[in-house]
Specification:
172 residues; alpha/beta; Rossmann fold; 7-stranded mixed beta sheet; two-stranded antiparallel ribbon; 6 helices; 11 strands
């Protein structure tokens, strides 16, 4: 298994996009990574946009950037809630500063905007947040996946295979 010994945090809050949380979580486990669902601390589990629940393994204020090799921010409406929690932003920005893989899909880059890590980077996202990404100092491109150092971004659920190939390659 290519990712044995790797630890990944997948962020969660209410109204996450089902595929953007579950596809990465299951793909990474398939590759041997230990994956933890990290929530804001507002609840022990969260419902997706389509009503599918996910149970949180730990709250962000209990999570240490030192314990993980990567963090993934799924989209949906969850990022608008995630970005309101200083512990989430601290986890993401500290992992970025440590040179770890930081990945976001769809509306997930909203968290990266609030964490202050997009200035000078090339990223993609769901087109509706293009202006937010540009206003944060990033160059926005419309392509299935972008890799800028250890930053991986993607647009929509249909891009998840390419998104995950990029994340797995960086972690392997």
């Amino acid at each position: 298994m290519r990712l044995s010994g790797k630890r990944v945090a997948v962020l969660a809050e209410t109204q996450y996009e089902d595929l953007e949380l579950w596809y990465p979580l299951l793909r990474l486990r398939e590759e041997g990574a230990e994956v933890k669902v990290v929530g804001t601390g507002s609840a022990p589990s969260y419902q997706s946009k389509h009503g599918y629940p996910v149970t949180v393994d730990l709250a962000a204020d209990e999570a240490s950037a030192d314990a993980f090799d990567a963090v993934i921010v799924p989209g949906g409406f969850a990022p608008d809630r995630l970005r309101r929690y200083p512990s989430i932003l601290s986890l993401v920005s500290t992992m970025w500063e440590q040179g770890k893989v930081v990945a976001a899909v769809c509306h997930g880059p909203w968290v990266l905007v609030s964490a202050g890590i997009l200035d000078g980077r090339t990223v993609t996202s769901f087109y509706a947040i293009k202006d937010d990404v540009i206003n944060a100092g990033a160059t926005w491109v419309d392509q299935p996946v972008t890799i800028d150092g250890t930053l991986v971004t993607s647009r929509v659920p249909g891009d998840l295979p390419e998104f995950m190939r990029a994340i797995i390659a960086l972690l392997a």
